Every structure is written in C-alpha cells, then in structure tokens.
C-alpha cells in the first residue's frame, strides 16, 4: 500500500491521499510531495515514471534488488540507493534492508523492497524536525539518510560490543575453539557486509551537498554535515573493527600454539622421568650377572636409584616450569 504526504510552505497539509493525486501538486512551487511504494509492480512504477519523467535505467534499478549504494544524476531527477542495516544478536549476521529513492525538484519517491525497512522511523524523524520542512525535498532526503546512517552507527556499535565479548573469551580457561572460530568468522563477514554499505555513503552524502544539485540549502547544510560526520565515523570505526577482528583471530591462533607447546613440553618432561625407571628395570632384566644379581640388596639399590633420579628430574623440570 502506497503512503503519501503533502507539505505546503513547510506545513504538513495532507497525508495518505491517493497516489494518482501526486501529479496535481507538482506544478505548485510551494508544495513538496512524498510518495512511498513497498514492493511495487512494474505497472506501479510505470505510472509514476510517466508523471515524474523518470529515466528508464533508474526505474530498472529500483525494481532490481542488491544494487550498490549510490547516487546517480539524470536530467530530471536524482536516483539514490541505500541500505539500512540491523545486527541479528542471536546469529551475529548483518541484515540489510534496501531502499531506492527518486529525488526531483518538488517530490521524493521512496521504493522499498519489503516492509522490513522501517519507514515509520523516517516519518518520526520528519515529524520531530518539522521546522525544517520549509527546505522542501532536501528536508525529506535528510530524514531518510539520517535514519539509514544511524542504523549503520548502531550496527557498528553492536559489532564493537560483540568483538569485546570475543576478546574476553580468548583467555577463558575452558575455551570452545569451534565456537570461537564460528563467532569470529561471522563477525568478520558482518563487518565486510557493513563496509560495503557504509563506504559508498560518503560519496552519496558528499554529492548531495554539492551546490549544483540545489538539494541542500543554507538551513540544511549543518544537518547534512552532521550526517556526513556520522558516515565518516561509522566507516572509520568499521575499518578499525576489521583490523581488531583480525588481531583477535591471530591472538587466538597464537594462544592455541602456546597451549600446544606447553602440552608437548609437559608430555616430553614426563616421558624423560618415566624413561629412568624403564632404563634401570630394563637393565636389571638382562640375562647376564650384574652387581647385586640374585641378592636382596640389588633390588633395593635399583629401587633407590629409580626414586632418586626420577625425583631429581621432576624437581629440575618443575623449577624450569616444564611440568
């Protein structure tokens, strides 16, 4: 179901009117129209495409999923693609929600691929900054971008918390290596996905702020600069977290190697201790006469030699932390 809004001279005048009425307001220089379409058909987009003179390539991109986050310029409008993201706390996977937008001089048309993109949150941002509505389409685009970029920032914050929890697990006494590997790989995959949607947003926001686009006026400039700052922080944070995940992974492998070396050291030390009585008893098991052969004191001498030499080896290994 399509949703609509009409702002006239910065005041919300009408809402949820039929999409067919959009064209009635486009000739009014004081009017700004918003139209939202969720999972539209080709016929739906064809109708609005004729009214707004949308480019065929832009309409095709709006219909197809998995577009790159971008801002394309055409003769009569701009075409924007962006992604809101959400981190699944249970699986650690990053979920993307795509939105496309046609930006004209007096209208903003948003095309959502599904209901999971929370357009209600965008409306809340518009209503909370109603004093900026006089800036026209730039005001609507700012609310949309602000929601998208904030979702990036929230996701990178949650990923940071997940990585901190992963760091704590590294030094746990009983560590499940398989679970550790799975969690670190999931986080790394989520960061790669987040990077793909965050980095292009720097170019998108920066392009919208260009004077020749006439989207951002002097009133909105500080607000777009704030969004751009959030984009930069999210992208830099994402890059640092990628390096941190790599460091965590390397630390985990180093600790595994150290544990293996420690185990091998202890096993080797015990083998050296056990080799002493094995050697002595093996020697006394020879079928040739030896000192104390067939005598009671010979047994006690061999037993004492086993205890003394084994005890000495144990003490030396223990002092050197080999046991």
UniProtKB/TrEMBL annotation:
Pfam families in the cross-refs: CorA
Membrane-spanning residues: 267-285, 297-317
Membrane topology: Multi-pass membrane protein
UniProt keyword annotation of Kinase present: no
GO CC terms: plasma membrane
UniProtKB keywords: Cell membrane, Coiled coil, Membrane, Transmembrane, Transmembrane helix, Transport
Superkingdom of origin: Bacteria
Residue ranges the record marks as coiled coil: 149-176
Subcellular localization, as worded in the UniProt entry: Cell membrane
GO MF annotation terms: cobalt ion binding; cobalt ion transmembrane transporter activity; magnesium ion binding; magnesium ion transmembrane transporter activity
Family membership noted in the UniProt record: Belongs to the CorA metal ion transporter (MIT) (TC 1.A.35) family.
Protein name per UniProt: Magnesium transporter CorA
Species for this entry: Amycolatopsis taiwanensis
């Amino acid at each position: 179901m399509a949703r609509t809004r009409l702002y006239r001279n910065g005041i919300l005048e009408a809402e949820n009117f039929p999409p067919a009425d959009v064209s009635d307001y486009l000739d009014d220089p004081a009017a700004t129209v918003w139209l939202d379409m969720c999972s539209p058909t080709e016929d739906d987009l064809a109708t609005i495409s004729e009214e707004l003179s949308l480019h065929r390539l832009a309409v095709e991109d709006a219909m197809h999923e998995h577009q790159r986050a971008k801002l394309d310029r055409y003769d009569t409008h701009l075409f924007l693609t962006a992604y809101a993201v959400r981190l699944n706390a249970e699986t650690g996977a990053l979920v993307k929600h795509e939105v496309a937008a046609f930006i004209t001089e007096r209208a903003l048309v948003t095309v959502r691929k599904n209901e999971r993109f929370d357009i209600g949150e965008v409306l809340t941002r518009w209503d909370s900054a109603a004093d900026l509505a006089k800036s026209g389409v730039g005001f609507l685009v700012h609310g949309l971008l602000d929601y998208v970029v904030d979702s990036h920032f929230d996701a990178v914050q949650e990923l940071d918390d997940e990585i901190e929890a992963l760091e704590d697990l590294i030094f746990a006494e009983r560590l499940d290596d398989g679970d550790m590997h799975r969690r670190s790989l999931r986080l790394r995959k989520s960061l790669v996905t987040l990077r793909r949607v965050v980095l292009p947003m720097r170019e998108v926001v920066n392009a919208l702020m260009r004077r020749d686009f006439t989207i951002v006026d002097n009133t909105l400039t500080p607000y777009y600069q704030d969004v751009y700052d959030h984009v930069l922080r999210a992208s830099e944070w994402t890059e640092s977290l990628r390096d941190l995940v790599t460091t965590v992974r390397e630390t985990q492998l180093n600790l595994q190697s150290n544990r293996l070396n420690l185990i091998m050291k202890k096993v080797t030390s015990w083998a050296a201790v056990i080799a002493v009585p094995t050697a002595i008893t093996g020697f006394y098991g020879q079928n040739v006469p030896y000192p104390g052969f067939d005598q009671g004191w010979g047994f006690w001498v061999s037993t004492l030699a086993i205890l003394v030499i084994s005890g000495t080896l144990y003490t030396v290994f223990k002092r050197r932390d080999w046991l």
